[in-house]
Each structure stands twice: as structure tokens, then as C-alpha cells.
Amino acid sequence: MLNILWLAFFIVAAVSSAFQWLWLGDAEVFARMVQSLFEMAALSVQLMLLLFGTLTLWLGFLKIAEKAGLIDGLGRLLAPLFKRLMPEVPSGHPALGLITLNFAANGLGLDNAATPIGLRAMRELQSLNPNPQTATNAQILFLVLNASSLTILPVSIFMYRAQQGAADPTLIFLPILLATTVSSLFGLLSVAFMQRLKLHDPVVLVWLGGLVGGLALFMATLATLSAAALNAVSSLMGNLSLLGIILLFLIVGARKKIALYDCFVEGAKGGFEVARDLLPYLVAMLCAIGVLRASGALDFVLDGIRWASAAMAWDTRFVDALPTAIVKPFSGERLVQCLLKP
Known about the structure:
This protein is mostly helical. It is built from 15 helices and no strands.
């Protein structure tokens, strides 16, 4: 799929640039396309450097949590649920604890923590894969739920909106919660249908019912807060949760008499390997998108969607986010291919 899509990006860009040159007399379009290739390659490295630091940090802390037995503990706690959703994953397997931590980080909108934890979880699931070239049912379910990313407190987005001068940074709280709840539920139901998972199992119903009930109570509580109070509570909960997780790892590790510093360094070394493996795929995708945009093809499509939306009296601001929304599923698929490589 991605092979065809990637080639299509360049073919469409070539056709669009030829139109710009022959029909509109824009001979500079080719220079912009070549410049975009190099700019996107450089941007890929810059992004990977940022990701490398995050990966190094969290893989180090995860190594401490693993040796302290926290990951195994989470796996055993959620074994009854995952036994129904991921029957091929043994009870108490480390992947289950990592998946739980990933969902928790996504729920708090802590993308910097969720990404390395998700990568580690996928690699643990890969260790159970009898056919390394094909994703297992468990990997597919995890990828779908990770991509849909149920977000209860989008702390990072609140922070970005505040930095950009938004009058009410928390205004998007309810839309994000509703959108990610629907996407996660739809993703779970879709995968369950394809994999024939029994969601009507009493254990699954209890867990899902508890989650839905907890979300409803949480939303009702936050709905009583003012915008300023919601912003303060969200930021406080997100930061306290993040620091609390780190301190929990360190305190439990110290009680287990683990050499914390050495253990952290051992785990952090894996950050370089993961970043190195991801870089070629990031360069390939960003360069293709850069050429497509520089050729004018992407802007032409976006302008068409913007015009159609305006004609139907819709708010057209969502159009600017479409490139990211379209590319995200393909980037997730490429990530899995990277992790499945021999």
C-alpha cells in the first residue's frame, strides 16, 4: 500500500509541476521541488534529534520499571482483560504493562512519554510474533487503539495553545475528549469485528463499562469548572502524573536495591537504535509530502476542499490540519513495518 502511495505522491507532483510550467508559465516550480526535498530531509533529522532525546529519557526510566517488576505487575493486573482482547499474548507478559502505560500517557496527552512507551510495547509484542514479516492481531489492535489515542486531558495541546496566545487554551477539551472517545470505540469495534473478539464477555463488559462510567463522571466533574480552573487542573494533573510515575519507578527500584543510574543508562542506550531505525522512513515520507506540496498539487486539493466547505457554510479552519490527519495512519503503518523488519 505505502509503496503505491509513495510513488503516487511523486507522479502527482510531476504532473502538477508540468502543468504549472507549461500552462501557468511557472518555471520556478522545479527549483522549489528540489529545494523542498533537501529541506524535508533536514527537517526529518531535526525531528529525529528531538525524538531521540525523548526516547533515551523514557527508555531509561522504563528499564528501571521493568527491573523493579512494575511492568510485570501491570501485566498481571490486566491479564483478565487482555486475555480476551489479545488471546495470543501470555498472561503477565511485559507487553501488557507497557500497553497500559502507553494508554495512560495518551490519556493525559503526554505525547513525549507515550511515543517511546508505545515503541517498546510494539517491540515486546514482536517478540511473540511467529511470522516477523506480518503484524499479529495483538499488534494490529494496539496500533489502532494507539492511533485513535483516547485523550482525557490533552495537557500538551493546552500548553501549545497557551504559547500561541489562545484566549481560552482549554476550549478544545470537550471536543478532543468526545472525538478521541468515538475514534477509540470505533477502532475497537472494527478490530473486534475483523478478529472476531468476544466483546460481550462479562470481563470485557465490566472493564469497558467501568471505563465509560469513569469517563462520564470525570466529564461531569470537569464541566462544573470554569475555563481558568479547568486549565489549571489539567496542567496540574498532567505534570503531577508524569512526575509521579517517574518517582514511583525510582522509589520502587531503590527498594528493590537496583543500581538506578546504571539501569537507566542501560535502557537509554536503546533510544539511539530506535531513532536510527525510524529515520529512513521519516525522511521518505516527509520528502514525498514536501515535493507534493511544492508542486502545488496539495494546495490545489486543499483549496478545493476549503471552497466546498465554505459553500456549505462550514468552518474551513480544519482544512489546514488535513495533511497531518491524512498522513498519520500511513506513518503508523510504516512504523509497524519498521518494527517488523528482520
